[in-house]
Structure formats: C-alpha cells, structure tokens
C-alpha cells in the first residue's frame, strides 16, 4: 500500500512538472466542449437554393414563396438556363435547385396533376434526405392550399399526428452530444495517456530498474495509473458541469449514481490502457493501437453521433464490446431522463464485466513481462 | 542527397525491425474504412416503435401496418394501453410510441377528423427530429389518401406533386460521403501525429543530439525524417482509394491522377503540422496530445467531415477557413462523386497550397532555429 502511494506521488510530481499535459487534460476538454457544442449542429437549415421558374405564374411564385418562408431554404440564385444549374451544383454554391416547369399553373387550373422538380446534391446523404423531407412537406402544403382555393371549402386532413417530445422538448443536439464528448475525451485521456506513460518507461529502460526495486509490478502499476484515474475523473466532471452551465444540460438523476458510473467507466478505460501497454513496446505503436481499438470505436460505434440502430447487424454486435456504448447509454439516461440504478443496471453490469476482463488480461500480461 | 537517402533507409530499417508497427500501417486504414464505411451513418432506419392501439379496428391496424411497412419504423410491441410507454421510453427500448385513441376507426369511417399521438424520446435531438419528420410525412400521406378517396372523382385530380432528383448519389448512401473522407483522416494520423512522435522520440532518447553532431544538416535531417512518413502516407492513400473503389463501390467519376496530385499538396500541410508540433513538444505524450487535441479533433469536427459547415454558427465557419482539411475534403468528395476537374476545384487547390507553404515554412523556420 505504501509502495503504491509512493509511486502515485512520484507520477503526480512528474505530471505536475509537465504543465502542458496537465493543462491539456484539464483545460482542453472545456475548450473542446465549447467549440463542438456549437459546431456539432445537425439541424439542417439555410440550405442554399437556386430556382428556375419556367412558368412565371402565381402558382410558381407561391411555391417559391413557400420554400423561402419555410425557414429551411435560402434563395441564393435564380437561373434561366440548364447549364447554369450544373455549374452551381458542381461548385457547391447551391445544394438544391427548384425547377418549376412551364404549364404548371395551366395544368392545375384545368384540374390535371402537375409536378415541380427538386434537384438535390446527394453527396451528403443525411442532408439530402432532410432536404427531401422538407421539399415533400412544403409542396404538399401548397397543393392542399391550392385545392382548397379551387374547391372553395377547406378539405380537412383525415388524420393528423400530434407529436410530444419527451426528455428534450427543444430537440437540442448539444444536450445529446455533451455526454458523448465526456466519454470520448475520457477515453482519450484514460486509455492513451495511461498506455503511453507506461510504455515510455519501457522505452527508456526505466521499467527494468523498477523490477529491481522492492515493489511488486502490480503495486507499481496501480500507483502509476492512480493519478491518471483522478485526472480523468476531474476532467469528466468539469465537462459535465460546463455542459450544465453553458449549454443548459439538465441533471435529472442522482449525482452519486453518475459519479459511480463515470468512475467505473474510467477504470475500464484505464484497464484497457494498461492492457495495451503490455503488448506495445513503443509509444508510437501504443498510440496507433489505441487509436484503432478505442478512440475510433468510441467515436463511431458507441452511439455518440451515429445511431446504433441504423448500423448493419454485424457491426451492431461489435458495438457490444465497446465500453463507451454502455457508459453513454447510462449517462444519457441519468442526466436527461433521470433514471435510477434499476434502469441502468444492465449497463453497469456490462461495464463491470468489461473492466474485470481487461484488468485480468492486463495483469496476465504484466506477470508474463516479469518473467 | 546521399545523406538524406541513408537517413531514409535508417528510418525504414527501424520500422522494419518492428514488424507489428508495419502491419498497423496497413491494418489501421482498413479498420478505419470499415468502421466509417459501414457504421458512420446518420440515416435513420428501423426506429423501434411501441404501438398503443386503444382502438383495435381495421382502420387502426391499417395505420400501424403503414408504419411497419416503412423502412424507417419497426413495430416492436403492440399494447392495448399506455401502461408500458413510460418504461419503454425510459429504458430506450422504444424510441417512439404511437398512441391510437379509442374511436379513431369510427371517426375515419365517418369522415371526421381523427388525431393520433406520437410520443418521441427526444434525447438524440437530431435523429428525433428526423423521426418526427418521417412520422408526420407518413401520416400526412396516408391522410391525403383517405381524403382523396372521399372526394368525388372529378375533384381528386389537380394535386401538385414534387419530383425529386438526387444528383451524384441517387441511392443516398452515407458511405459515399464518409469513405472518401477516410483518405484525409488516414493521412492526418500517419503524417501529422506519427511524424511528430517520431521526431520527438529522438529528442526524448537524446539521439537527436547525436544526429546534430554528424555532418547532416538540419534540412537533410528533416527531409530524411519526413519523407518516409510521407511515403507511407501515400501508400495508404493508394490502398484506401483502391478499397473505396473496389470494395465500397464508391464511384470514381473524376481523375485519380488529379486526386493524387492534390493529395501531395495536402501532404505538405499535414507533414508541416507534424513538424510544427514536434518543435513545440518535449515528450511523445505531449506531442500526441497536442496533435490530437489541437490538430486532429478540430479537423474532424470543424472541417465538414461529419457536420456540414453551413450548419455551424458563423464564428466557427470562419475558423474552418484555416483548416486544410476543409479544402481537401471538398476536393476528395468532388473528384470522387461529381467528377469535376481543376477548372472547378482551383479555389480549394490554391487555398490548400497557400496553407501548405505557410505551415511548412513556419515549421521549418522553427525547427531550424531549434537545431542551432
């Protein structure tokens, strides 16, 4: 026990002397939160729109007005020739083009169906499908309105959908992303820093010296990891507080449960970092392995940004071994929905299992190194 | 020249001595491609949905079957009462609950206006917004059908429809957008972070001092250190391009040679950033953290890699102009999907070149000062 403390104190001193790393771990997350909190905005608005009105009628003007007034589109260009459309879309100056063919008003006036055309740049599928949805809804609205004018009486919609949003009524993306950022940054500091700090000793050959010292490898490693656990914990909590103060993220559940889950997740992450340190001989290698086994999966497979339900089934199974998946679900549940231990129990159990396995693997690896 | 060559050989010998590290160079891009190609999709599909059918008529079942048939929704459970709604939404087992009140079928048959309710878990604001849009569209479309069926045949006509054409990516595959982006990401990791770590490693181990006393000039040393990583980066570029085209079937509509050419310009910026980070870092840990927090993360989040730049607040859009990745992403995606050439891409190419020269120049100046 005394040995562990001594190592921890030594590591702390070393970290404290490295002002930059300390600042990076403690201050950077806040900075990132601020930046990404505002930047990671998926609400698709201000879609740059060009229009080619070949009809020049009240109907065509009404359609265009409906697009502009919807708030989703900014009219940036009016084109008269086909080639211009291609050029505008190619150079990314517009994302969507509304084409109203000639005769639209005439066809509608004589009681026939008509259609306007919307060209969408599909390179970003997510944006394109949102634009598609907007266009459908807008044109349907205009169509109903025109028919009402023609029939002379309002045709009430047969079925209406009344929507109620729970937990996040304004549908702010930020509130959802803050817990994700915590997991992401914690993963980074916990896994990568731990792995690098131990592999560094190997690179320098100081690991050999420690083996001579009257301290067991496990005790040494625990002491070495302890400061990083504390650091990442402080860092996570400060992101959480900042999320609440700056972005108005609610806290509906229990603080105790939140801290306990966070600590558990960090232990799992540190354990993984330890495990990596046993298989890597150079910091470069450790970093690369950490990147593809923890950083990238946390980013892509945890549900941080990309919904897990939309992934191919095979990859959905892979997400079960990503600890951030469980942590995120628990964190979002506690913070946004106010759920208790009962609801997050599956996540807590999964994290515990993960932590046990990686710590087991790490100690096996450490024992092998000793021989 | 001879000395540079021997430095490059030295670097490669070091790499070869660590065969695992070499394998990672090949394996890492492939893993990145797989994850970003298959999993990184913001599309919403198969939203798990709880149906509370208090009506239990043919009409209510018809509405439910519309939801179930849509690719966007999957009805996971149907219950006659709202008792389960709380629990299903709290645990996240269901994302949405559709409540069809008693008397719904009767109203539909009589031609009276009927209302159904959607309770949506708004935790994921973005996705929930899309889910609500799909649900509203589905119900509105179904409602319009019901109305049309009630109208006399002469009045059914005369609707204004919309015909949508999606250019470049008609099936709206997310991977066409993400996979070309991996090119940029791989280069960032390989050439910025690894280069910075490699140079700082020599500092940490004290071997940089030794190299400084040899007749090698600082310039030669730099080229010798940077070139191998640049070369590895290029190999990865070709690998990623091949996998993107032949495995992910991303259409390559433009000129691959132009893409490689502009990649070299981008390489100038990433190598320059790596060199720059190495001049301001004393340990590999520092170098890695600096490169990851100040270079990689801002590049990933602010350059349009995931979130379109036009969605961002204006202040952040301004920051993005300083990121080389912003321009490179436009270049990569446009060459792949739109098939445009330099006549359209010259503004991006120029910006990239300007940034590259500036960053690289700054880094060289700093490292030259350091070496002396």
Structural features, described:
The complex is a heterodimer of chains A (371) and B (372). In chain A, strand 1, helix 4 and strand 2 (73-78) form a beta-alpha-beta unit. Chain A starts with a helix and ends with a helix. The mean pLDDT of chain A is 83. Chain A has helices at 2-17, 19-26, 28-39, 58-69, 82-90, 104-109, 125-151, 173-204, 206-212, 217-247, 255-279, 283-300, 313-318, 323-337, 341-370; strands spanning 47-53, 73-78, 96-100, 114-121, 159-166. The longest helix of chain A is centred in the middle third of the chain and has 32 residues, at 173-204. Chain A contains 15 helices and 5 strands. In chain A, helix 1 crosses helix 10 (217-247). Chain A has a 4-stranded mixed β-sheet with strand order 2-1-3-4, with helices on both faces. A 4-stranded mixed β-sheet of chain B has the order 2-1-3-4. In chain B, 69% of the residues lie in helices and 9% in strands. The model of chain B has no long low-confidence stretch (mean pLDDT 83). In chain B, helix 3 (58-69) links the parallel strand 1 and strand 2. The longest helix of chain B has 31 residues, at 175-205. Chain B is an alpha/beta fold and 372 residues long. The interface between A and B is large, with 122 and 121 residues. Strand 5 of chain A pairs parallel with strand 4 of chain B.
Short structural description:
The complex is a heterodimer of chains A (371) and B (372). Chain A has two domains: 2-40 and 170-370, no CATH class; 47-151, abc type-2 transporter like fold. Chain A is built from 15 helices and five strands.
